[in-house]
Design brief:
single chain, 404 residues, alpha+beta, Calcium-transporting ATPase, cytoplasmic domain N, seven-stranded antiparallel beta sheet, HAD_sf, EC 7.2.2.19, ATPase_P-typ_P_site, ATP binding, translocase
Length: 404
């Protein structure tokens, strides 16, 4: 393997050297595409962004600058870490030390031993207790047999028999069978047990921390609430629409339904027309699948509506833009006009809207209305609901909540 090189300022000259030869106080220069050769305190930066995903787990590029923004070294923007990649821009920094952050993390990970589970500790304690008891009773019976006139050989055989009789020969098989049966029952509930000893430990778990959506859930979403006409409506996702109904004659709902139908890339898989809508499999993102099933339940014939309003342009959703835009050619328009629709994160959509539709009328989207919208979708986030903002003509917007 080729050793990593570093561009270093030595004796007033920029020279390339092997990164292993860096010392504390060296000034290092990095540019887009370079791997940072050591932990650096940033001295100068021109649009420098780094990828810290292997260190922090965050995939978004992180901006590096000269200002200290946080006391936590992993959060501040004036430090660059060893082996991280500079994605764009340039920067120079001073090497801070030999004990790098990534090295300390690797050291901590390597120091973690294979700790015994509670059930293993209990079995070990029980075996020690039984072993001591067996040896003690065996010696006692040996002394008694000798005192009663038995030969030493017979006394020893008698002692060994007592010790062997105390050994719990069925303990291992019993524990293994019990744990296996428990793991089998958990498998029926879609919980795969890779380590049998973890079954007993899992029963003592009170808190599980997970950073990724869908890790513990099934990555399925449904539409829960909608906000239009200044009212929060419960979404009815039942097949026969027997739940709480909302005013489907509202022009605001017509606009919302049109956006959710057209600005959506999810599609039902083929040959599922005979299945209930909630049971159909969808090819697409979980949130878009939720919108698709909801609009199919309420409006019906979503795929036909899309075919009648041909999509001519689209900007797909991505984590950087946090919005999706599509333009459709309206079939029912005599002049074949085009309709732009948008959905995405509330803060991104609000910045691109100038009006809001309430009961079919458009009103200016002023600061008071923005504060009202913030107060509406705030509780949705506290309920762990994902919030989508929908916009038509890029002018007014509506809300949809999707819980995990």
């Amino acid at each position: 393997m080729v050793p990593q090189q570093a561009l270093v300022l030595r004796n007033g000259k920029r020279i390339e050297m092997i990164a292993e030869h860096l010392v504390v106080g060296d000034i290092v220069f990095v540019k887009g595409g370079d791997k940072i050769p050591g932990d650096l305190r940033i001295l100068e930066s021109q649009g420098c962004k780094v990828d810290n995903s292997s260190l922090t787990g965050e995939s978004e590029p992180q901006t590096r600058g000269v200002d200290c923004t946080d006391e936590n070294p992993l959060e501040t923007k004036n430090l660059g870490f060893y082996s991280m990649t500079c994605l764009e821009g340039t920067a120079c920094g001073i090497v801070t030390g030999d004990s790098t952050v990534i090295g300390r993390i690797a050291s901590l990970a390597s120091q973690v031993g294979n700790q015994k589970t509670p059930i293993a500790l209990e079995i070990e304690h029980f075996v020690h207790l039984i072993s001591g008891l067996a040896v003690g009773v065996g010696i006692l019976f040996f002394i008694i047999s000798v005192s009663m006139g038995y030969s030493p050989l017979n006394s020893i055989i008698f002692c060994i028999g007592i010790v062997v009789a105390y050994v719990p020969k069925g303990l291992l098989a019993t524990v293994t069978v019990c744990l296996s049966l428990t793991a089998k029952r958990m498998t029926k509930k879609n919980c795969l047990v890779k380590n049998l000893e973890a079954v007993e430990t899992l029963g003592s778990t009170s808190v599980i921390c997970s950073d990724k959506t869908g890790t513990l859930t099934q990555n399925r979403m449904t539409v829960a609430h909608m906000w239009f006409d200044n009212l929060i409506h419960n979404a009815d996702t039942s097949e026969d629409q027997t739940g709480e109904l909302f005013d489907q004659s509202s022009q605001s709902w017509h606009a919302l339904g049109k956006i959710a139908t057209l600005c959506n890339r999810a599609e039902f898989n083929a040959d599922q027309e005979d299945l209930p809508i909630s049971k159909r499999t969808v090819n697409g993102d979980a949130s878009e699948a939720a919108l698709l099933k909801f609009t199919e339940n309420v409006l019906g014939k979503v795929m036909e509506r899309r075919q009648k309003n041909e999509k001519v342009f689209e900007i797909p959703f991505n984590s950087s833009n946090k919005y999706q835009v599509s333009i459709h050619k309206l079939e029912d328009s005599p002049k074949h006009s085009y309709l732009p629709v948008m959905k995405g994160a509330p803060e991104r959509i609000l910045d691109r809207c100038s009006t809001i539709m309430i009961e079919g009328q458009e009103y200016p989207l002023d600061e008071e209305m923005k504060e009202l919208s913030d107060s509406v979708y705030g509780p949705g986030e506290s309920r762990k609901e994902s919030t989508w903002c929908l916009s038509i003509h890029a002018s007014f917007f509506l809300w949809v909540w999707l819980p995990f």
